[in-house]
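User: Sorry, what's this?
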Amino acid sequence: MASAAPTASEYVIHHLTHFNTTGHAQEAVVDWSVINIDSMFWSLSLGLLTVFILWLAARRATSGVPGRFQGFVELMVEMVVDQAKGIVHSAESRKFVAPLALTVFIWIFLMNFMDLIPVDLLPRIWEGMVAAGGGDPAHAYMRVVPTADLNITLGMSCGVLLLCLYYNIKIKSFGGWVHELFTAPFGSHPVLWPFNFLMQIIEFVAKTVSHGMRLFGNLYAGELLFILIALLGGTATVFGFIGHLIAGTAWAIFHVLIIVLQAFIFMMLTLVYVGQAHESH
């Protein structure tokens, strides 16, 4: 006998559950005791695709009239370089930071773009593969939008934090940075040292958390809305199907702006935080 169709809540929970190392549904939003294999797979795969795209652009670059692909990449490079020049004033640092910012932008855009793939397409393919291997498709979880996983976005923002700490030490020296930790922003009087240090730590933590949370929140909301729209199409009524098409198309068009904007914001904040690491209080 065929199994009953999942309820609306079961459908949503299934689509919001990660394929992870525990082998079962994980309720915590952030849990670094497990690895979300689906997020790792898609983020690393898209990261390699980003590197391949940039390598291909460099390999095909010519001094003559550029083609469409080369012209688009050159436009992206010029945009990022112009932004980096206005924020990171060290030409030596920009040799690394500007290419990094471009890579981050394209990588995050590709991860965000996964949200535009029909929500049931890749999970159904995965369920079929699990069933073909003798597993239970009901427990074949697969989330394909890495930036809708807070573990991924916080991991990326922590990477930016480490980069900022590196440039703080490189530009100011370790002693100069430690001196700044205890003397800014309120002054160098010994009584103010604990307050200065506390404010500096709060600033580092707040920037890192907000950096990751902003990207996660927007993409998680977008993913959830696509799931709810997909539910509308499963009502088996003409009005539900038409509403699904209209709502899905409208949200997908609007979401294109969101995925580009969020990639741009993450890239810009990366440049801003690295630029701040070059400045003395």
Q: What stands out?
A: The chain has a mean pLDDT of 90. Residues 9-25+32-277 form one domain.
